[in-house]
Write a structure and sequence with these properties.
The complex is a heterodimer of chains A (about 110) and B (about 110). Chain A is an all-beta fold. Chain A is built from no helices and eleven strands. Chain A has strands at about 5, 10-15, 20, 25, 30-40, 45-50, 60, 70-75, 85-90, 95-100, 105-109. The radius of gyration of chain A is 13 Å and the shape is globular. Chain B has about 110 residues and is mainly β. Chain B has strands spanning about 5, 10-15, 20-25, 30-40, 40-50, 55, 65-70, 75-80, 85-95, 100, 105-110. In chain B, strands 2, 4, 5, 6, 9, 10 and 11 form a seven-stranded mixed β-sheet that branches. Chain B has a four-stranded antiparallel β-sheet with strand order 1-3-8-7, with no helix packed on it. The relative contact order of chain B is 0.34. The chains are: A mainly beta (about 110), B mainly beta (about 110). The interface between A and B is medium-sized, with 20 and 23 residues.
Chain lengths: ~110, ~110
């Protein structure tokens, strides 16, 4: 079964500290993985996609097929990074996007 | 710039009422989706559509139906609203790999 697991509901860090938002997935083939972000009072939007291998707003995510993980990282958190982050997987015949339960990142001043 | 709009930001309905949530996208996307977003449960797919008049059940279709008569419009229908359908409802459209979300409709069923 396809599944995305985000083990942390809330992650609280201080400004300038490193951030790692965990994401593990279950999928038998080669998935496409994404991170979506929702800032307060804004709509959900794509942050990054594993295939592009980009750094967006200082965030990176590496796909580790051996550990079936796609953790989101940033070396120095900023207050404006405070948001809800969702890891998502796309795969299968229908190409549905399957979301994890989300992690609320709170960056304290 | 892709725009996905939803008919209402906030809606309050009574138990047993029939509820219509409307979603419109302006980028000629073929794929459209309805999710509900609940704290601790993330986004759960209710229904999706790959083309006009086509619909597929998502993970939690019970109590819901959809309609797609035109490419740009995807409607979610609660046949008989119940209190456990109180939630944030998000519509999305997709072309390629990126999904574009609407602002959401917060529905309260009393």
């Amino acid at each position: 079964a396809q599944r995305v697991t985000q083990p942390e509901k809330l992650l609280s860090v201080f400004k300038g500290a490193p951030v790692e938002l965990k994401c593990n997935y279950s999928y038998s083939g080669s998935p496409e993985l994404f991170w979506y972000v929702q800032y307060s009072r804004q709509r959900l939007q794509l942050l990054l996609r594993h295939i592009s291998r980009e750094s967006i707003k200082g965030f990176t995510a590496d796909l580790n097929k051996g550990e079936t993980s796609f953790h989101l990282k940033k070396p120095f958190a900023q207050e404006e990074d405070s948001a809800m982050y969702y890891c998502a997987l796309m795969g299968g015949a229908t190409n549905k996007l399957i979301f994890g339960t989300g992690t609320l990142l709170a960056v304290q001043p | 710039d892709v725009k996905v709009t939803q008919s209402s930001r906030y809606l309050v309905k009574r138990t047993g009422e029939k509820v219509f949530l409307e979603c419109v996208q302006d980028m000629d996307h073929e794929n459209m989706f309805w999710y509900r977003q609940d704290p601790g449960l993330g986004l759960r797919l209710i229904y999706f559509s790959y083309d006009v008049k086509m619909k597929e059940k998502g993970d939690i279709p019970e109590g819901y139906s959809v309609s797609r008569e035109k490419k740009e419009r995807f409607s979610l229908i609660l046949e008989s609203a119940s209190t456990n359908q109180t939630s944030m409802y998000l519509c999305a459209s997709r072309d390629g790999y990126e999904q574009y979300f609407g602002p959401g409709t917060r529905l309260t069923v009393t």
